[in-house]
């Protein structure tokens, strides 16, 4: 008897059928992957399973019994927990407080809770599943990778019978992903059902027992991973051959240094030292990747270079001119472009139109502003040309940015950042959460940018991406640069060791 | 079963239909209240409407009650647009009135063309300076501007009372013996009386016209200028504003100063249009600053809508003054205003969400 079984699920939204007669079954004790591109209907399906949406048609059965969830609470009570791609955490609360939030069982459901007990339990779970986080840290102080751990801890704490994870490895290192897979396998061995949503083929083949592939809102197939290859899964998922993990040969003409960091230090949000004596050089025409586990200073590095965070030591030089630091406007004028990690709330003002977001940085310039007045026609023109040139799929420049899909939003951000003819581009996790086709596009723009003479700093936790794109790789660990490798010869194992802080004398 | 769902898209017509619908609902609920309290709804609404908007004398009185609401409404709307919750319009209006009265008294003897602009400038300065206190604290020390500006309202009210009732200040009338027994403000010179514009049979206070002009200026400022663009971005996402190199602190100071200046001009208009002295008791009894927050909320922070809403609420307020008596308790007008606000804020939900009625499907109805 399957633990979860969905029959003929149909869910319509205005203008789209997100799920069109989807069938899905997952057995007790298995890791079952749900594979598909963005927009294939994976999220809708998991939202139905977690009680957030009600299906228009079709039925949901758990352990052979028909259920109808009226709210997410019903699904939680039925033992279904979800780790969302966009975290459902309360930033000012501590890790432990977030873990018990909304939980009504036992200790955490009481009127008065003992924070120490919960903290101890959270710490134990963290140790046991190798996803330790300081239970007393406040969530806003954590990196995205650490926040994801909190989400997983939340489900573990609630002893979910059915765990759904939406793109859980997007912010993990290979080693962390490995250890997560061990966690997931262990949970499955304990008789739970793990539903693993992904569009990363090698992960699916590595961790899942079976895979259900969705395309265009329909079930394409359910296959045993033992009998399939990444190639066969890819063709099921996309309907054509794609590859974003192979190095694309690129004509590299490396020029003079455009970005030089000398002994840069900075403090993190908690006031602790987050960057220590960082020295690196990026030359025109090259892509330098910064690899590292989330929370090892990459975010602070990006913010220091782009002026969003003051430096406490050292100098940052762009195109030969030293920056005073701590001033985003100064960095922008010096020619530093920035694709931020949190594209929806930092990269754009989400409620404002695409047009407004197109000129988010250039509204001060003479082409857009006429004295204190804005030239609305010029803004619209610029937005239309960005939409055409970068193939942004939208109904027009007045659409609020938040209504764009992740890939289209990233095209708006990239298009805007490239339009200022920058010398340096800091790209932080530029493809996180994007589907394969959008990743291809972003990679192409980054390569074109480098070929056009920009110096690009690619901050990423995705080693496939780093190995496919970068010319040089520096590895950060605890706020320091612990090694530098040539991307042609670097291996995942060597990178993984450096990312874990294991440094060997350079041979 | 009733479900509230987030709207996937927000049609444009909603932003007009929802406020109008909210008003209708408020009147329907009010009908119930009137029936329960033994009033005939049709006659009551008729009288309310008559004494607010029908006839030129009624309209003139409505213009006078609408003017301060227009200023305090704009004061709140200007700040709320940037997610700066300036609750201090009340106090900023008092300080504006104090400054403007001082200006008028200091230059007594000069003609109106000099005195009136001076009063406007002084009122704006007073309101802006007073609003800068929460602004500076917010910009540099990250204190909550809601609490600081709210508390400063009490400070301003106490200062106002002190100047008239508890001291022999420059603003207090000390010319006659009875003025010492019944304290009141020193009368302002005639040149400091703001002119009335006559159009048809209507008398438009100068302050009302000035407020409408300011509404237009605010609209241009917020929708057509770099300044307004920055305000929009900061209001929507402070992280994005920092990322784009905007000077957030300066903008907090500027927007709060602008907001306070508008409330301060409202205070000057009270001196010049209506009261012709620093009327401590009258100003603090009226509660214009708080009513302005209601106006801004109903107008969804749109400056032109503020003009309309101020006129509407001013009319209801004016009708309340006229009608209150044995058969019409003054509380009823308060109930009416409260209902309008309540329904308008409830209606906000419908702009972002929709309500779906669906029956629980029987288990066998699988297609």
UniProtKB/TrEMBL annotation, chain A:
<keyword id="KW-0677">Repeat</keyword>
<protein>
    <submittedName>
        <fullName>Unannotated protein</fullName>
    </submittedName>
</protein>
<keyword id="KW-1278">Translocase</keyword>
<keyword id="KW-0813">Transport</keyword>
<keyword id="KW-1003">Cell membrane</keyword>
<dbReference type="InterPro" id="IPR003439">
    <property type="entry name" value="ABC_transporter-like_ATP-bd"/>
</dbReference>
<dbReference type="GO" id="GO:0005524">
    <property type="term" value="F:ATP binding"/>
</dbReference>
<feature type="domain" description="ABC transporter">
    <location>
        <begin position="4"/>
        <end position="241"/>
    </location>
</feature>
<dbReference type="Pfam" id="PF00005">
    <property type="entry name" value="ABC_tran"/>
</dbReference>
<dbReference type="InterPro" id="IPR050107">
    <property type="entry name" value="ABC_carbohydrate_import_ATPase"/>
</dbReference>
<dbReference type="InterPro" id="IPR027417">
    <property type="entry name" value="P-loop_NTPase"/>
</dbReference>
<keyword id="KW-0547">Nucleotide-binding</keyword>
<feature type="domain" description="ABC transporter">
    <location>
        <begin position="259"/>
        <end position="503"/>
    </location>
</feature>
<dbReference type="InterPro" id="IPR003593">
    <property type="entry name" value="AAA+_ATPase"/>
</dbReference>
<keyword id="KW-0472">Membrane</keyword>
<dbReference type="InterPro" id="IPR017871">
    <property type="entry name" value="ABC_transporter-like_CS"/>
</dbReference>
<dbReference type="GO" id="GO:0005886">
    <property type="term" value="C:plasma membrane"/>
</dbReference>
<keyword id="KW-0067">ATP-binding</keyword>
<dbReference type="GO" id="GO:0016887">
    <property type="term" value="F:ATP hydrolysis activity"/>
</dbReference>
TrEMBL record, chain B:
<feature type="transmembrane region" description="Helical">
    <location>
        <begin position="116"/>
        <end position="137"/>
    </location>
</feature>
<feature type="transmembrane region" description="Helical">
    <location>
        <begin position="92"/>
        <end position="110"/>
    </location>
</feature>
<dbReference type="InterPro" id="IPR001851">
    <property type="entry name" value="ABC_transp_permease"/>
</dbReference>
<feature type="transmembrane region" description="Helical">
    <location>
        <begin position="282"/>
        <end position="299"/>
    </location>
</feature>
<protein>
    <submittedName>
        <fullName>Unannotated protein</fullName>
    </submittedName>
</protein>
<dbReference type="GO" id="GO:0005886">
    <property type="term" value="C:plasma membrane"/>
</dbReference>
<feature type="transmembrane region" description="Helical">
    <location>
        <begin position="304"/>
        <end position="323"/>
    </location>
</feature>
<feature type="transmembrane region" description="Helical">
    <location>
        <begin position="12"/>
        <end position="39"/>
    </location>
</feature>
<dbReference type="GO" id="GO:0022857">
    <property type="term" value="F:transmembrane transporter activity"/>
</dbReference>
<keyword id="KW-1003">Cell membrane</keyword>
<feature type="transmembrane region" description="Helical">
    <location>
        <begin position="329"/>
        <end position="351"/>
    </location>
</feature>
<dbReference type="Pfam" id="PF02653">
    <property type="entry name" value="BPD_transp_2"/>
</dbReference>
<keyword id="KW-1133">Transmembrane helix</keyword>
<keyword id="KW-0812">Transmembrane</keyword>
<feature type="transmembrane region" description="Helical">
    <location>
        <begin position="252"/>
        <end position="270"/>
    </location>
</feature>
<feature type="transmembrane region" description="Helical">
    <location>
        <begin position="59"/>
        <end position="80"/>
    </location>
</feature>
<keyword id="KW-0472">Membrane</keyword>
<feature type="transmembrane region" description="Helical">
    <location>
        <begin position="204"/>
        <end position="222"/>
    </location>
</feature>
<feature type="transmembrane region" description="Helical">
    <location>
        <begin position="146"/>
        <end position="165"/>
    </location>
</feature>
């Amino acid at each position: 008897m399957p633990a979860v079984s969905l029959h003929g699920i149909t869910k319509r939204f205005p203008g789209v059928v997100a799920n069109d007669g989807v069938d899905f079954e997952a057995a007790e004790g298995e890791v079952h992957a749900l594979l598909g591109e963005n927009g294939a209907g994976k999220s809708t399906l998991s939202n139905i399973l977690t009680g957030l949406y009600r299906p228009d048609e079709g039925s949901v059965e758990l352990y052979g019994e028909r259920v109808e969830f009226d709210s997410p609470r019903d699904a939680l009570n039925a033992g279904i927990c979800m780790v969302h791609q966009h975290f459902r955490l309360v930033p000012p609360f501590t890790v432990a407080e977030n873990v018990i939030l909304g939980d009504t069982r036992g200790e955490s459901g009481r009127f008065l809770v003992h924070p120490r007990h919960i903290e101890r339990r959270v710490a134990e779970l963290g140790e046991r599943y190798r996803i330790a986080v300081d239970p007393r840290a406040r969530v806003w102080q954590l990196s995205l990778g650490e926040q994801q751990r909190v989400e997983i801890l939340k489900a573990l704490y609630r002893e979910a019978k059915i765990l759904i994870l939406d793109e859980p490895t997007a912010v993990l290192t290979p080693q962390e992903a490995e250890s997560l897979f061990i966690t997931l396998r262990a949970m499955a061995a304990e008789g739970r059902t793990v539903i693993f949503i992904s569009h990363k083929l090698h992960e699916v083949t590595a961790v899942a027992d079976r895979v259900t592939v969705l395309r265009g809102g329909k079930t394409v197939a359910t296959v045993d991973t033992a009998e399939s290859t990444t190639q066969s899964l890819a063709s099921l998922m996309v309907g054509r051959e794609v590859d974003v993990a192979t190095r694309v040969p690129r004509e590299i003409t490396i020029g003079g240094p455009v970005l030089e960091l000398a002994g840069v230090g900075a403090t993190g949000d908690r006031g602790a030292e987050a960057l220590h004596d960082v020295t690196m050089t990026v030359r025109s025409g090259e892509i330098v990747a910064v690899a590292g586990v989330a929370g090892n200073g990459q975010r602070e590095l990006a913010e220091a270079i782009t002026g969003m965070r003051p430096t406490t030591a050292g100098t940052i030089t762009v195109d030969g001119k030293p920056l005073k630091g701590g001033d985003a406007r100064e960095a922008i004028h010096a020619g530093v472009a920035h694709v931020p990690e949190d594209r929806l709330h930092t990269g754009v003002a989400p409620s404002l139109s695409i047009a407004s977001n197109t000129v988010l940085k250039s509204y001060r310039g003479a082409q857009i502003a006429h004295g204190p007045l804005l030239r609305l026609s010029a803004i619209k023109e610029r937005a239309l040309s960005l939409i055409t040139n970068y193939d942004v799929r939208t109904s027009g420049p007045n659409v609020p940015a938040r209504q764009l899909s992740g890939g289209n939003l990233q095209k708006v951000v990239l298009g805007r950042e490239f339009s200022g003819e920058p010398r340096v581009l800091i790209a932080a996790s530029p493809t996180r959460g994007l589907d394969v086709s959008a990743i291809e596009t972003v990679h192409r723009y980054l390569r074109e940018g480098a070929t056009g003479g920009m110096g690009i700093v690619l901050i990423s936790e995705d080693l496939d991406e780093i190995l496919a794109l970068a010319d040089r790789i520096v590895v950060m660990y605890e706020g320091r640069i612990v090694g530098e490798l040539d991307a042609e010869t670097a291996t995942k194992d060597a990178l993984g060791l450096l990312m874990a802080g294991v440094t060997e004398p350079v041979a | 079963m009733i479900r509230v769902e987030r709207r996937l898209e927000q049609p444009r017509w909603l932003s007009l239909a929802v406020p109008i619908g909210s008003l209708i609902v408020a009147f329907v609920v009010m009908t119930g209240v009137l029936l329960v309290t033994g009033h005939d709804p049709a006659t009551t609404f008729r009288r309310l409407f008559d004494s607010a908007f029908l006839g030129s004398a009624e309209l003139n009185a409505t213009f006078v009650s609408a003017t301060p609401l227009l200023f305090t409404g704009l004061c709140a709307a200007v700040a709320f647009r940037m997610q700066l919750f300036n609750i201090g319009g009340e106090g900023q209006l008092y300080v504006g009135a104090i400054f403007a009265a001082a200006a008028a008294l200091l230059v007594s003897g000069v003609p109106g063309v000099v005195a009136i602009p001076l009063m406007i400038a002084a009122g704006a300065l007073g309101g802006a300076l007073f609003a800068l206190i929460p602004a500076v604290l917010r910009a540099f020390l990250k204190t909550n501007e809601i609490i600081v500006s709210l508390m400063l309202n009490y400070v301003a009210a106490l200062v106002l009372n002190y100047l008239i009732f508890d001291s022999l200040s420059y603003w207090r009338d000390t010319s006659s013996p009875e003025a010492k027994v019944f304290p009141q403000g020193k009368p302002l010179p005639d040149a400091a009386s703001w002119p009335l514009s006559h159009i048809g049979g209507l008398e438009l206070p100068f302050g009302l016209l000035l407020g409408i002009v300011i509404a237009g200026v605010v609209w241009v400022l917020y929708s057509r200028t770099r300044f307004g663009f920055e305000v929009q971005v900061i209001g929507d996402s402070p992280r994005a504003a920092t990322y784009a190199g905007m000077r957030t602190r300066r903008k907090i100071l500027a927007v709060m100063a602008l907001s306070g200046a508008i409330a301060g001009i409202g205070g000057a208009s009270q001196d010049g249009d209506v009261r012709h002295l620093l009327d401590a008791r009258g100003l603090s009894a009226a509660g214009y600053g708080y009513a302005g927050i209601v106006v801004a909320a109903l107008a969804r922070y749109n400056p032109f809508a503020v003009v309309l809403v101020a006129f509407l609420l001013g009319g209801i307020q004016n009708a309340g003054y006229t009608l209150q008596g044995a058969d019409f308790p003054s509380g009823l007008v308060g109930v009416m205003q409260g209902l309008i606000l309540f329904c308008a804020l409830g209606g906000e939900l419908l702009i972002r969400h929709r309500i779906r009625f669906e029956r629980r499907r029987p288990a066998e109805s699988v297609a």
